[in-house]
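dumping the sequnces here before i forget
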Amino acid sequence: MASLKNCITMMDEGIGRVSQIIPEMPAPEARLCRLMLMVGGSLEAELEFKLKPHKLNHSEFLTLMILYSRPDGSSTPGELCEYATQGATNMTRIANTLVKRGLITRGASAEDRRRVSIRITAAGKRFVRKMLPPMFPRVGLMFAGFSDTDKRNLDRLLRRLAQNLDQLSEPTHP
Amino acid sequence: MASLKNCITMMDEGIGRVSQIIPEMPAPEARLCRLMLMVGGSLEAELEFKLKPHKLNHSEFLTLMILYSRPDGSSTPGELCEYATQGATNMTRIANTLVKRGLITRGASAEDRRRVSIRITAAGKRFVRKMLPPMFPRVGLMFAGFSDTDKRNLDRLLRRLAQNLDQLSEPTHP
DNA sequence: GTATTTTAGTTCACTGATGAAATATGAACT
DNA sequence: AGTTCATATTTCATCAGTGAACTAAAATAC
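..and the predicted 3d for all of it:
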C-alpha cells in the first residue's frame, strides 16, 4: 500500500511547480481539494477494509445503518436512494442481497401500493449491534491528537464545504 | 441529485438515535467520519463532472497531472501506481488510453530495460494548460466564505488525519 | 558463471458498480 | 375513462478496477 504521506509530499511539490507555470491557479484551494480527495479515499478504503470480514460493502452498510437508525426501522427504496446517494438500480440490488441475508425484509406499503416498504429485521439489528462496537477503537485512533476544538473546527469546516458543494450543483435556486 | 444538506441532517439524527442505543459509540468521531465520506464523495463527483467534457476520468487526470508537474515530465508505471494509488494492471490501461490520445508516450528506459519510461507530450502539456484554468472558478466557489485561517486549519487537520490513517494501515513499524 | 530469486510490466478473464431504457403497477389529475 | 406522473424492478451495456498467470530483465546466491 502506498502511504498517504508520500502522496502528500508529492502533491505539495507538484502543486508548487504547476502554480509556477500557471500562476492563476488557486494553489491553496487546489491543495485542499486534493487533500480532501486523498484522505476521503483512504478513509473509504479503511471502512471497506473493516466491512470486508462481514461481507458488506459501503453502500450495503450505509443502507443497513440508515434503517437501523430509524425509529421504526423502515424506509422505502426511493428514500434510501436519496440518503445513500445511490441509483435506483443499485438500490434494488443492495436490497436483494440484504434480503437474501435475512437482515431486511421487503413488503408492500399499505397506503401507496406502488411503494415498497423495506424494514430491518431483528436479525439485522442484532447484526449491527454486534459488528459496530469492534470498529470504535480504530475510529478513535483516526482522530488521535485532535483536541475537542479541532474536532469542532473540522466539523464546522466540512459542513460549510458541503453547503458550498450543494450550491455548485444547483446553480438555479427554486 | 440528492443534496448533501439532506443527507447531513439525516445523518445527524441517525447518529443521535444510534448513540442512544449504543452509548459506547464515539459519536463526534463517527460524525466526522461520515462527513468526510460524504463531502469527499461529493467532491469526487464534482471533479468527475468537470472532467467528463474532456473524456477523462479521475485516475487518468491524476496520472496526467503527476506527469505534468514533473520537472522533466516523465515517470514510470510503478511510480505512477504509487502516487495515483492504482494497481499496476489499471495503470497499464490508463497509460494505453493516454497514449492513444497522444497525451503521453511510452518508451524503454535506458538504464533498466525492465522499466518503461512514460513521458508527457507537448500536446499533453497544451491539453493541461487549456483544460485546467476553466476549473479554477468552481474551485474558488467551493471555499467561498473560508477565511485564510479556516483554510490553514482545514489543511492542518486533514494532514493530521492523513498521518493517523497511515499509522492505521501500518500496525508494525519497520 | 550459471542458477535462483526478485522486480517491472503486460495480458487475460473476471467482478462490481453504474446508467439508460423498457416494463409493470398504481396513484393523481382532467 | 383516459392521460399523465410516480415507484420500483428488470434487462442490457459499459466502465473501472482487481487477481492470476506470464514475459523479460536485473539482482543475488552459490
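The first helix of chain B runs from residue 4 to 21.
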